[in-house]
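Hi, here's the filled form for the chain we discussed.

Project: internal
Contact: R.S.
Residues: 202
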Amino acid sequence: VVDEADLTTSRRERRVVIAARSRWASARESSIWLVGSIMVAQSNPSVARSATAEAAAPFEKGLEQLALLPRTPEHQRQELEIRSALGAVLIAVKGVAAPETGDAYARAQELWEELGSPTEFLQIPYGQSVHHAVRGELDLAQRLDQDLRRLSRKRNDAPGLVLAHWSSGRDLMFVGRFGSSRTHLKRALALYDPKAHRSLVE
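And the returned structure, exactly as it came back:
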């Protein structure tokens, strides 16, 4: 016998998942509008503030819907997808050094690690490193670079190594360690395959 309360809970969870996915789909479909809004925002501060709020709204709504669900790996992954996209949007309309951008990437980093650091989300540790580097928090940025390089080497993951070496080269250049920077940048270029790693630069 199936308990009616369990059925009700199951139906409610399905409705919440559908609503969250709908918000996420809406956010992805708005990307063309977002590009246009960024171009306008660059010359109009008041429009920039409006564009930020409107661009982030679908993602935040999706996160609100997911927060109503039990904490499962599936829902964590959905949150990871949304927060990853939100971080990219905030970079475009708010700035890579903005606290809001850092918060989005910090939470995404937590989820990424909890889910076993899936390779399809390498932009998360890379994005967080860029955030700290631009803010002048170079110790934090280099620590993230080292963690990504260590993980990618352990997995023999070429895309991760490309990003890790490139990021290390950038941050070492910022602190004046030009020889070490050059070594990492040369390693990134040596590992980079234009066909296999095209998504890294898109």
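Let me know if anything looks off before we file it.
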